[in-house]
Design goal:
The structure is a single chain. The chain is of the alpha+beta class. It has helices spanning about 1-10, 15-45, 60-70, 100-105, 200-210, 225-265, 265-275, 280-315, 325-345, 355-360, and strands at about 50-55, 75-80, 95-100, 110, 120-125, 140, 150, 155-160, 175, 190-195, 220. It has 2 domains: about 1-45 and about 230-360, no CATH class; about 50-220, no CATH class. The strands form 2 sheets. Strands 4-8-5-9-3-2-10-1-11 form a 9-stranded mixed beta sheet, with helices on both faces. A two-stranded antiparallel sheet has the order 6-7.
Length: about 350
């Protein structure tokens, strides 16, 4: 330890040449991870389910059947509105959802009181009502032939708790498929697909929808597609930057270590003549490289983690203290230290060259 620190005391700047590039790489990776976490939060829903809305008049019956079997899609639900675009002024309206009790249970956080074969009204006591159809009121829904199908708001209500924004909204009428007219107009209808909300499934479903109905607009409820694209781009740039930074950092490290080893050949030879063992000299070489590197990388991991957490806190992220990426960064730092230690050992040779002593 004394021999290793003696060299650092004489030439402290030599340690900075070895440490700087890798320290900046670790710090940059830590901070970028905070940006990725923030983008990931704003680009996806916190609910376990994801819904995708497509206007019924934008897809054909054949495309509807193909969309139902897109990989990742759990179920599909049809919904219609009684709103008449030709009506003057603001008029009350009602929405109906064509679904079974099983679909309702699997697509909501909580539901009680559902009965198959009956028209029911959905109610969420914790959600405000944009439209509040009263029991006994009648609402007309347009048919394909220009006629109207009238639905009466039932007295029986189902208590539900939907996952954030959902097709199963409070105040809507739940109509069993067997009681729904087959000729409801597609102009006021919406096809809703339901899948899991993990990013891989969302991308797979969106790709599947694009393959089946490439010209149909899709509304992924509660997420921002642009953020998903930005997340992919930033992850790609991070991967490229990490690879380039690692190559440049390792190259700078190897050049610096080799340069320092050549500078100390005379000193190593003198120490060997004085009786220092080869194992001691190798240990000195490893300590001279690993110790400042360990201090620098340790500080970079801590400072980068604090910078990332500060970014998440000031950015309003749901995760204030991100522990998930810390083990990966610590493992990367330990890997760098291991590579540095192994690369330092061959720099000390057993052979004693008298020419080094004469030059000194």
């Amino acid at each position: 330890m004394a021999l290793a620190m003696r060299r650092t005391e004489v030439d402290p700047g030599s340690s900075l040449r070895v440490v700087t590039a890798l320290v900046l790489l670790i710090f940059g990776a830590s901070l970028t991870q905070g940006v990725l976490v923030e983008l990931d939060q704003v680009s996806r829903r916190t609910a376990p389910l994801q819904e995708y809305k497509i206007s019924l008049d934008k897809v054909t019956p054949l495309q509807r059947k193909e969309l139902a079997i897109v990989p990742g899609v759990r179920t599909q639900v049809l919904s219609y509105s009684s709103w008449d675009p030709t009506a003057d002024g603001a008029v009350s309206r009602a929405d109906l959802v064509v679904a079974t009790c099983a679909q309702l249970v699997s697509s909501t956080e909580h539901s009680t009181g559902c009965v198959d074969g009956k028209i029911l009204q959905l109610r969420d006591d914790q959600s405000p009502l944009e439209y509040d159809p009263k029991a006994g009121e009648r609402y007309p829904f347009a048919l394909t032939d220009g006629q109207k199908a009238t639905f009466t708001v039932p007295r029986h209500k189902i208590s539900i708790r939907p996952w954030a924004v959902s097709v199963f909204t409070s105040g809507a009428l739940l109509v069993p498929p067997e009681l729904a007219p087959s000729r409801l107009s597609d102009s006021n209808g919406t096809l809703t697909l339901v899948s899991d909300s993990d990013p891989e499934t969302v991308r797979a479903v969106l790709d599947g929808i694009g393959a089946v109905a490439p010209t149909s607009p899709v509304e992924p409820v509660g997420i921002v597609i642009d953020s998903l694209a930005q997340l992919t781009v930033i992850r790609s740039l991070l991967a490229v930057g990490m690879v380039l930074g690692l190559v440049i950092g390792v190259a700078a490290f190897v050049v610096s270590v080799a340069d320092r080893a050549l500078e100390r050949r005379a000193q190593v030879t003198a120490l060997a003549l004085l009786g220092a063992r080869a194992g001691t000299l190798r240990g000195v070489q490893v300590l001279q490289v690993v110790l400042p590197l360990a201090v620098g990388l340790g500080g970079a991991v801590v400072a980068g983690w604090l910078a990332e957490s500060s970014y998440l806190i000031t950015g309003g992220g749901a995760v204030h203290w991100d522990w998930e990426g810390l083990p990966l960064l610590v493992a990367a730092a330990l890997g760098v230290l291991l590579v540095a230690a192994l690369a330092s050992v061959p720099m000390v040779r057993r052979h004693i060259d008298p020419e080094h002593i004469r030059r000194d």
